[in-house]
Amino acid sequence: MMEHELFNIGQAAVKSGISAKMIRHYEDVGLIPKASRTFSGYRLYNNRDIHMLRFICHARDLGFSIKQISELVGLWSDKDRASSKVKALVRDHIIALDEKILSLNTMKIQLEHLASCCNGDSRPECPILEELSA
Q1: Which of 49, 55, 120, 130 could form a disulfide with 45 if both were Cys (CB 3.0 to 4.6 A apart)?
Q2: Distance (Å, whole) CA 67 – CA 75
Q3: What is the CA radius of gyration of the chain?
Q4: Cα–Cα nearest to 60, from 69, 73, 50
Q5: Which CATH number fits domain 1-64: 1.10.1660.10, 3.40.50.2300, 1.10.10.10, 1.10.3720.10?
């Protein structure tokens, strides 16, 4: 692969694992720099752009928000960064994930209880709907 190779947005989407729509969105919100353009206005991406898009894709897969990814991209490109900043951001994310897991488990327990209270037969009486409307 040549360093100066250029890709259109469709090719960049395939190579990065991010849809063209999301690439345009990331550009609009400033997560990635504005793409260079052809004379006819088509976006062009180089290998460095693809690498950044893959970084973003991996961060999204790990559940980081756009704001957090923006911070991570900034830290990634700052060669004088302190790794403690990256670790702190990840630890904060872990805490948020733990809180979300707890919340989801609580919902699951409540739903399991509601499901166990319902006969699930042909009668119209439904304790699930009654509880939700209370």
Answers
A1: 49
A2: 13
A3: 23
A4: 69
A5: 1.10.1660.10
Residue 74: predicted pLDDT? 95
Task: State the pairing for strand pair 36-37/43-44.
Answer: antiparallel
Exposed e or buried b per residue across 28-66, where buried means at least 16 C-beta atoms within 10 angstroms of its C-beta: eeebbeebeeeeeeebebbeebbebbebbeebbeeebee
Listed ranges 1-5, 44-48, 121-125; the one with the highest mean pLDDT: 44-48
Residue indicated by tokens 């037969």: 121
The amino acid occupying position 115 is A
Estimate the crossing angle of helix 9-16 against helix 47-61, to 10 degrees.
Answer: 50
73 has a pLDDT exceeding 90: yes
pLDDT tens, residue by residue, 96-118:
999 999 999 999 999 999 999 99
